[in-house]
Amino acid sequence: MSRPALLDRASFVELRARARAEALLDPGTFRELLGPFDRIESPWLARQGVVPQADDGVVVARGTIGGASAVAIAIEGAFQGGSTGEVSGAKIAGALELALDDCKAGRPVRPVIVLDTGGVRLQEANLGLAAMADVHAAVVALRAHVPVVGVIAGMVGCFGGMGITAGLMSRLIVTRQGRLGLNGPEVIEQNAGLEELDSRDRPLIWSLTGGEQRRAVGLADELVADDADAIAEAVRKAFEAGRPLEHRSERIDFWRDRLRRLPAEPTGPALRALWTGDER
């Protein structure tokens, strides 16, 4: 009896951030920067009774992708829901800014970010927001030189300010398990009530913000199975495709037209029926 193909896959979703970054880089090239033994952690969490993490929940590694110099950044969703604070945000922005310096000096670097985050870390408030702004600015500056590739695999998904970061990517790769939005389901339910959204209704949530839906309506570029090798290959192909002629976030009139046609109470199937036929 043949072995089911599913069992031959190495799940990317089940990997922790460090293993995810290593999986995206060419074998044997992973070299971590500011790792846990450097003890670069948030100075604010312990004061609020939260145990900090020595890498502040972000892994930054240099290596190669498809033989070309690369930087892989992975957010650890298991630490504080992947939330971005002062230190973790500075690690992301700093890595992108260094890649930008290399690109300007004629040494292109391929940047990829694994997004598994609920957004800004509430315990660090404005510090997290400021760091998020630095990340956004760095992505926009860097994508003028090389594609900036994002991956949303799960388990947390990608929400809040990092949802905006995902929208700025040159290419965005998702799995069915991944989710993408600005406000997370729990936040919507808490502020608008069950009548607006039931965060426990998993089929509803994934029909609106799941990776398959986001790819279908044009908010992501590639839907890939939860397989580490397949995702790494999709990342390599994204870089080989080069920079898009126009980034998704630059298509202002296109998105305004879509918003004008948005139903009063949109559902996943309604959005897909309305938007799937549009040119991308």
UniProtKB/TrEMBL annotation:
It holds the Pfam family Carboxyl_trans. The chain crosses the membrane at residues 148-169. Residues 1-253 form the CoA carboxyltransferase N-terminal domain. Keywords: Lyase, Membrane, Transferase, Transmembrane, Transmembrane helix. It is an enzyme of class 4 (lyase). InterPro entries: AcCoA_carboxyl_beta (IPR034733), ClpP/crotonase-like_dom_sf (IPR029045), COA_CT_N (IPR011762), Malonate_beta (IPR017556). GO terms for molecular function: lyase activity. Its EC number is 4.1.1.88. This is Biotin-independent malonate decarboxylase subunit beta. It comes from Methylopila henanensis.
